[in-house]
Amino acid sequence: MSSNILTKTIALMHTPRGFCRHPDYRYLNVIQSDPNTLPQSVIDTLLTEAETAGKDPKYVQPDKQFRWPRGSNYWSSCIQIINPLAKDDQKEILFTVNLVDNEAALCCAMVPFENQDGESFLLVGTGRNIPTAETANMNRVSGFVHVYRVIDPGNELEFIHKTEFEKPITTLLAFQGRLAMSVGNDLFIYDLGMKSLLRKARCRLEGSQIVSLNTQGSRIVAGDVQEGITFVAYKQAENKLIPFADDTVARWTTTTAMVDYDTVAGGDKFGNVWIVRCPKGASEESDEPGSASFLTHEKSYLGGAPHRLVLQVHNFVQDIPTSIQKTSLVPGGQEVLFWAGLQGTLGIMVPFVDREDVEFFTNLEGHLRAEDAPIAGRDHLMYRSYYIPTKGCVDGDLCERFFVLTRDKKERIAGELDRSVREVEKKIGEMRTRVAF
Question: Which residues are bridge partners to 268 per DSSP?
């Protein structure tokens, strides 16, 4: 893979937590933070105190090996503008904003505000005094949303204001010319004011902390850290956020992406990738004009939303998904779900386009489970169903093991499928080359 991809490395001050790009400029705005690390402001204060006390302070600038000085319950964080296309004689890091008061940048978004004539602002969600060590942190934990204007030609930021909240900010999302964000398990819609953000709508969801937000149309999909997915409808006439469907399983969500208007794909902390779908009747009901009063007073089911999502796909991948998105890997190719894991795993989920392919690969997978058993003797179906029985998914890695089987096993499997060995190999190869490489 490395021979086909052009890579470039840019050294950053801290661990990157996210990035976004202004629609009119080519530069990347990268937020970075490190726990248990002394920020530059604290280092300067300690050096000044040592000089005042008559001591000779000795301080060595951080390098690639030792990094920054360590300190319990401290966070060091910054925002940097990066030029990813910089040549050897050009600067790669164009602008740096260091966060103070023990704040840690957690999320960012480029939001176009309708009341500012559609101008896009950089919003950064932070957390202050987040505990990072076993020792107690006596300071109050809170969160902020920083607002920055991107100065033309995109290589500088102008600080506008920041708004304080009760808890750290974990998700920000542009929504219909406003800002959708979460504070704990509360979902808000804010507009941009002169001195702070202005709250427009709010609703409280079941769970403890929202970790992901996605949107299409007037619908917001919220992923909770331990309660799974909740569909929320925004009624503009009544200015209300109304949850109308949630999951049947308490999933420890890490990342989500909308596949279509009613379907969401995601991953959890136990190494599962899944797809859930909102029932058609509940979806149509939530979009009906004037249904806000009905949805608000509709009877909840088992302490949750009135409707339940339906599980479509579930598979154990043995890595914690940290990012998932719907994209095409080749120009003009079929769209796939591309996900990345904590251990560096990169995977794709390819949708089948006809029933013939579904039956072929399902039968092929069943034969390979019997003919190509794992060396350690573990059952493949049990492995892919580690937490929840696998559903609606065929293991492509297992199907590609057909190429390494002996000739007699290939012929036996191909005979069961009423095809020749060459046809089976061609079918497997086409499934890969159609969407990737």
Answer: 253
Q: CATH 2.130.10.10 spans which residues of the chain?
A: 1-204, 209-351
3-state secondary structure of 47: helix
pLDDT at 192: 95
Judging by DSSP bridges, how do beta strands 240-246 and 307-308 pair with one another?
Answer: parallel
Question: 209-351 belongs to which CATH class?
Answer: mainly beta
Q: Give the whole-angstrom CA distance, residue 346 versus residue 330.
A: 16
Q: Does 1-204 carry CATH code 2.130.10.10?
A: yes
* Three-state secondary structure call for residue 376: coil
pLDDT confidence of residue 63: 61
Look up residue 238 and give its two tokens. 């009544």
Please report how many Cα atoms fall inside a 13 Å half-sphere around the Cα of residue 395, on the Cβ side: 21
Chain center to CA of 186: 19
The predicted structure's pLDDT at residue 71:
81
Under 8 Å between Cβ of 199 and 186:
no
* β-bridge pairing 240-246 and 228-235: antiparallel
- Residue 221's pLDDT is 96
Helices and strands, counts by H and E, the chain: 8, 24
Residues of the chain under the 50 pLDDT cut: none
